[in-house]
Amino acid sequence: MKKAIARLLLAALVLALAFGCADRNQEEPEGLYLWFPVNPALGEVSGILDACPYTGEDRSIPGLLSALLAGPPQEEIELAAIIPAGTRVLSWSLENQVANVELSAAYAELVGINLTLADSCITLTLAQLPGVEGVRVTVNGGGQSYRERPVLYPKDVLFSGAEETPVEVTAALYFRRESGDSLGFEWRKFRLTEGSIPAKAVLTALIAGPEDKGLLPLLPSELTVRSAWVDEGLCTADLSAHLLDLPENERTLAVSSIVETLCSLDTVEQVQILIEGEPAGELTALSPPTP
Q1: Is the N end or the C end of the chain the one with fewer CB atoms within 10 Å?
Q2: pLDDT digit string (tens) for 226-237?
Q3: In sequence order, what are the beta bridge partners of 277?
């Protein structure tokens, strides 16, 4: 599902949900994240930001900056690098709860929305650290003349008037019936932001299992949704290899549950399943049975 590049950011709201009201008196944050633009259609940088866990040992400003400059981990295929290759950290300091970061000239290649996205990723990432409330980014000492705000704060990432109205999506989730090897379904409502990917939310709920009595889960609990997007009625779902751990007869029913569930979305007519990013043979361009 391709997003328009002009779409404004929801990252500050996401940050508030992910980290809550963090206690700034903590000696060390329990978990740190790196923020990058989302690339749901695997073809263009989106105006939406998302985060992945930071696994490095250096839990400091230079440690997080180094990880950001390296780009998202290879397995995070939905996230896109935004900071130009060759960008280096020339200096940094922390003064009055503002992280001052001076980057090399390569960063000046960014303009427009790409500069906004990069600044936002740096701000959201560094503001997780105790004592960091805002971020000032300069390039080779060039100052802030090209930015509206000299110091950025997480709340600034959600621009005035950019709030997106929550979207309610209804889907039928298909599970195994307790009585045998057939599928039954339950209706679920998902309250999502416009930047969310309904197909991914629905698949995640399918993996978690049913809520209604008389239905049993089909998919392995270890299964993960690497990405999902819809383009002209074709929903592509990239799943982890745990799907192949199922016996063949179980796998057939599990695939049927995935196809039926995704095709219950208004925007989906066919389903293509990838395993670890690769086409899965017979799982290509599946349609639900004709009633």
Answers
A1: C
A2: 888 888 888 988
A3: none
